[in-house]
Amino acid sequence: MDRKKVIVQIFTGGFKNKEIKFNDIKCKLLELMEYIDIEKVIMGWNVDKELYIKTKKLLNKYSVELYLWLPCFSEIGLLEKSNLLIDYTGKEVKGYTLQEDENFEFYCPNNKENIENVKKIYSTYFSEIEFDGIFLDKIRYASFSNKLNGVFNCFCKDCLNIYEKNNIDKKSLIIEMNNVSNKVISNKDTPFGITEYINGKYKFKNKIWENFFEIKNQSIYNALVDISSYFKDKGLKIGIDTFSPFISYFTGQDLERLQEVADFIKPMMYRITKAPAGLPFEFEKLIDESVQENKEIVKQKFLDILGITEYEGDVYPIKFVLEEINFMTKNLTKDIYVGIEINKKEIIAPVTPKYISENILNINKTAVKGYVLSWDLLSAPKENIDEIIKWFRN
Ligand SMILES: [Zn+2]
Q1: Domain interval for residue 166
Q2: Based on C-alpha coordinates, what's the Rg of the chain?
């Protein structure tokens, strides 16, 4: 099997803050590039042009590509007036607070103004920089991290039109949603009455859920076709950031469909992260938000449906992650670079060399093209970087 490729991700801070010095980026990159081959660097999304221009110059010497890391349906409201998702009660969906420079506020993908904002931000702040490609992040609806109404949306004017055209009965949908949130479904059942998880998709007792999530998948795809063609016309290659299929389903990400617009896909397999996109975090939020009674019983039933046997509520089991990866390598034709954490943050990402090693040892056996060392090289401690060098040393 071919040697796995390595992509590195660097977080330069949100649109509005954080002072990152080029020298810090340079030191961290040189530390790695001295020993291992890096294929691309993904970097964003602070608007300080100089950082990217200098990094690009450095990377040219090593023939490494530079991709701009750009959020699409979140964060952009900090720079351009954007239209939030509207929940089933008619209220705007609130953000999730993780840190100052990310707002985790989500905007409706069916709203044209929101789509134009992504292009506008690129053309205003980044178009003069010679990027090789663009890495699209937050190409999704909110998740259960934004509470139940993070998923029970969108009911804006544009979305209601789409439901009508597609014969989705808005009234029945809202009744179902109210039932979940008002604990009417008292049960020892499964969340939303899920009956099956097969080929990256769920089946439900009430088919309205399937129709609802299918429309969300279609909406994200349609928006991505528009956004990606804008960037392709500028000669940029496209990478996309996605959830793992068992969670992505609930956020409007159908990977089989989305891959059409991308050159490569990075599923975030964050097995230990207790923040949005982290597998244990998103899983627990799904249970907490959608189940009111008998949580432990329902959780166990859901785990059974997923085929997960050794989850202790902490690190997500590698066995299940490998199943998700194998599903993707079999069904997707585009290159897959698995996102694995290398950064360390107290409590939310307690990443150790041992954990990194367990991921690589196992994922190396799959047919993926490589890894995206996530989600921030600048906050990866020396011991974690040393572990990476050990694995990928030339
Ligand atoms: Zn909407």
Answers
A1: 5-392
A2: 20
Dihedral sign, Cα of residue 211, residue 218, residue 327, residue 321 = negative
CB atoms within 10 A of CB 305: 18
Q: What distance in Å separates the CA atoms of residue 353 and residue 302, rounded to the nearest whole number?
A: 31
Q: What is the pLDDT of residues 288-315, one digit of tens each?
A: 999 888 889 999 999 999 999 989 888 9
Residue 251 CA to ligand 1 centre (angstroms): 13
- The CATH number for 201's domain is 3.20.20.80
DSSP sequence for 348-363: TB---HHHHHHHHHHH
Instruction: Please enumerate in sequence order all residues whose Cβ is within 8 A of that of 192, keeping only pairs 6 or more positions apart, or say none.
Output: 180, 204, 206, 209, 290
Rounded to whole angstroms, the Cα distance separating 207 from 194 reads 10
The Å distance, Cα 115 to ligand 1 centre, comes to 12
Number of domains forming the structure of the chain: 1
Could you write out the DSSP letters of every residue in 242-274? E--HHHHGGGT--HHHHGGG-SEEEEB-BSS--
Distance 104 CA to ligand 1 centre (A): 17
216 CA → ligand 1 middle, Å? 10
**Which residues fall within 8 angstroms of residue 307, CB to CB, at 6 or more apart?**
197, 320, 323
Tens of pLDDT along 111-153?
A: 999 999 999 999 999 999 999 999 999 999 999 999 999 999 9
How much is the pLDDT for 275?
A: 92
Cα torsion 201, 211, 158, 85 to 10°: value is -50
- Ligand 1 midpoint to CA 363 (Å): 37
Give me ligand 1 centre to Cα 114, in Å: 10
Q: How far is the CA of 5 from the centre of ligand 1 (A)?
A: 38
The rounded Å distance from CA 249 to ligand 1 centre is 18
> What separation in Å is there between the alpha carbon of 174 and the centre of ligand 1?
15
Pick from 374, 246, 316: nearest CA to 255: 246
Q: Rounded CA gap, 281 and 339, in Å?
A: 16
Phi, psi (degrees; rounded to nearest 5) at 66: -115, 125
